Amino acid sequence: MKILYFAWLRERVGVPEEVIALPENVRTVGEVITHLSSLGENYAYAFEQPSIIRAALDRKHVPLETPLGEARELALFPPMTGG
Question: pTM of this prediction?
Fold first, then answer.
């Protein structure tokens, strides 16, 4: 799956995007975040507060409990503020 990182998530992970083969037991957006957290210190730091992360699955904003289904792209964002 193609994973896109935005704002400080991109800075903490160290890349703007990557393609990752997910384990078969990873079935939801939240489970992707949990899996990413296990990939190294930079990922653990980026996702230390998973509940605040916002996600878009194939460019549609979704809650973390959303199943991945046949989605090809997951974008992950920190909380955003307006102004």
Answer: 0.93
